[in-house]
Amino acid sequence: MSKTPMLMPQLLYTKIVNLPDDPQPGLIVTQPVTRVDAGKTQRVRFVLKNSAEPLKVEHLKRVIFTTIPQRDKNKVKVVFSQNLPVIIHPSGLDVNMEPWKDLQWHMRGGKLSVENKTPYVIRLEQKVKLLPSGAHADLPKAYILPGETISAHASTTLSALDKNIEMYPATRYGYKAKSFVAEIK
């Protein structure tokens, strides 16, 4: 739902962005461009494209909402835009409010990796802290897709003495959750 705070009608342009590492399933926005009168609310409807098989895992897309103001001679207009994540949740999949607890962290040859064996998209800060040393490592992106393994990058060689990792997850609604300490295996 989008509400325009302007005094004049605006066009609301909605665009779905497929992430390069999660292009399927397709998501369609009905009425990608619609007029929103001043002070009014506009609902935006998304439709999932039919696929040959039912979804078994969550998928991640991004949606960009952009307001396009009316043209006015000799005036500068401001365009507002929001880029929001969309998690597509299969109907038969239970809701897990803390899926990051099931991530598996591994240290091999001074390299840190994390594996997501869950059916959930897990969002987290890209910076993680190794314990007890306090060394930091950076993940290449702020989410881990179901079945995906990603490697962290550190400016120094990581120590095999570090047995835990402190991460900073985000809830499914995008709020920062309490930090979580997981074991490195």
TrEMBL record:
Endpoints of the signal sequence: none
GO biological process terms held by the UniProt record: cell wall organization
A GO cellular-component term linked to this record: outer membrane-bounded periplasmic space
Compartments, as annotated in UniProt: Periplasm
Highest taxon in the source lineage: Bacteria
Keywords: Chaperone, Periplasm, Signal
Domain Pili assembly chaperone N-terminal: 9-93
Keyword Chaperone on entry: yes
Record's keyword annotation contains Lipid metabolism: no
Similarity remark: Belongs to the periplasmic pilus chaperone family.
NCBIfam families tied to this protein: PRK09918.1 (NF007392)
Name the UniProt record assigns to this protein: Fimbrial chaperone protein
